[in-house]
């Protein structure tokens, strides 16, 4: 990838005997929004920390902005922006002072920092709160300020670790709009997220990681087409009248790819949810509720990584 901002081959990270990242290959192109998905412990954050030049790789090759993080860490860090999973703002300073102080870390002049702060306050919709201390701000405001702060050096690459975790729907959508605006402006972004709808909305391409390896890669719609069906029929029954997955598979033979049994419902993966529902009813099975929906990235994620909780 000639214009790749991040290129990795056999990238590995070990912590003692634990291999958190097990020889992954990555190519992130200029202007792309690239996502890491995976359960806890999959290796996403370890990979991000190596790209951010704050954790040395154990093995493999890694280039960020055409440079080697082991040799050129400071030069790379001066050209990237990082939004950590947890906000690390200076709570006793004002919103504007947080931006001024961070800009000075990058060697910007006072006049340049003042001008940049005005621009970023408008970007984050925080102009009216510029002189307020950070501590009493809402979670959404703090998150927007953290993102704005990461842009103070006009980064070529922006790394965002779960950018909307803990935010209410309104705040999440505002952050999405701000990130989409950055994409239009050509800022390359790498995102980790647990929100499947966020990944579908924002990412041009993504990888699903599990156990330190990449188990799938592609655009969201490509992954849905590859690992799921066009539609999913969700069926809920009275416990005493609930058919097994095997029984439904028999009833729907030739109409479905698979039937998944969950404690509260059955999921029927099919190209035509309404036809499958009609066949179930015609066979004498009367669900309490039935819902036909399109397959989502969440269906892909759970199929690839399982439904078992990982601590």
From TrEMBL:
GO terms, molecular function: ATP binding
UniProt keyword list: Antibiotic resistance, ATP-binding, Nucleotide-binding, Transport
InterPro entries (UniProt xref): AAA+_ATPase, ABC_transporter-like_ATP-bd, ABC_transporter-like_CS, ABC_transporter_ATP-binding, P-loop_NTPase
Gene3D superfamilies: P-loop containing nucleotide triphosphate hydrolases (3.40.50.300)
Main subcellular localisation: membrane
Membrane topology category: Peripheral membrane protein
Pfam family, one: ABC_tran
Compartments it resides in: Cell membrane
PROSITE patterns: ABC_TRANSPORTER_1 (PS00211), ABC_TRANSPORTER_2 (PS50893)
Superkingdom of origin organism: Bacteria
Domain ABC transporter: residue ranges: 6-236
Homology family: Belongs to the ABC transporter superfamily.
Protein name as catalogued: ABC transporter ATP-binding protein
Source lineage: Bacteria, Bacillati, Actinomycetota, Actinomycetes, Pseudonocardiales
